[in-house]
Amino acid sequence: MRNWILLSMMVFEAFLLIYCLVRKSNHVPAGYLCAFLSLLLLIVTGWLLLFPKVEPLVATGDYQVLHKTDYYIDHQRVETYSEDGSYRELPVAFWYPKEYSNGQSCPLVVFSHGSFGMKESNETLFRELASQGYIVCSIDHTYQCFSTTLFNGKKVRLSSQFMKEVSMDKPNKKPKQSLVNFEKWMKIRTDDLNFVLDTLLEKSEKKEATNTFLNLIDSSQICVMGHSLGGSAALGIGRQRKDISAVISLEAPFLCDIQGVSDDNEFIFDQSEFPVPVLNIYSDATWEHLNEWKQYEENARLLERESSKVQNIHFSGIGHFSLTDLSLTSPFLTSVFDGTKPQKGAEITLRKINDVCLKFLDQQLKKKETN
């Protein structure tokens, strides 16, 4: 009801703006004033529609959650999406427990956002995990995220090249071209994840006084997690590294497992067993299409291999972006991007996602017995 009221107001304000612009010649100062006020009302109403005021979900764990942002520069890689010869810089955000004293070590969770996403895309989940004794690091994949700010204050927007590649990608119709895209995107993403992981572990091992919470990282308990394209990168890291204990994928195909394209235009997947426990979470956006969309063939295969190491969960009544905090901060945009209105409230869905992820991590990393 609220959205319909705001939309009705926007329509009225738009007509008022047009009327003022058309009629301003009869009384120029008053006409311009009317047009300005109409435009201002239209902007304010639009903002209220897109971003209603909401309270963040309260974390349920025992620990107070602290937050910090840092910047890591990979001097071994020149930025792919820039022509100025600069090295690739990755803003990273941390959520971690204050005054943690449980053996003075915390499992580490590293998160990769989806295409056009941001490092804060699942902050509700990050805060919940931190309140339960986890250190969470989320990466802004520069030029593949909607927007970010580098250490020197420079604003970096989404690469138009990357946006075009994603929007034009058609795996079912042009699998060979898609494979080229997948390999390019996954190379960038997995290199980012590997660089951040190596940096964090190096800082943790040095036990410097300035590292504070990084000194608490338990290098034997690491999970990589991601949404959409970020989930695909996380799954790839699960195969690449020996120090990964678990992977959580929020609706993502196994893009790093694709080894080629057959003569009949089918993707050829790595058929070996996935080396670490994995939790795959799906919405209605892909659940009914796992056997239809070529890039999800491995996901469909794992549905038949349900075990303590391979878990698959489907949240019905929601779309792809409802798996992120966008569903909380902008229900209207979530409905637009998903093409349908979620049947369940954002708070209910996000709480459930928190619960299943925490349960999985406690089982696989902290080795807790859960019901």
Automatic annotation (TrEMBL):
Transmembrane segments: 6-22, 29-50
Keywords: Hydrolase, Lipid degradation, Lipid metabolism, Membrane, Transmembrane, Transmembrane helix
GO terms of molecular function: 1-alkyl-2-acetylglycerophosphocholine esterase activity
Domain of life where this protein originates: Bacteria
Database matches in InterPro entries: AB_hydrolase_fold (IPR029058)
Pfam families: PAF-AH_p_II
GO BP of this protein: lipid catabolic process
Matching PANTHER family: PLATELET-ACTIVATING FACTOR ACETYLHYDROLASE
Protein name: Uncharacterized protein
Species of provenance: Enterococcus raffinosus ATCC 49464
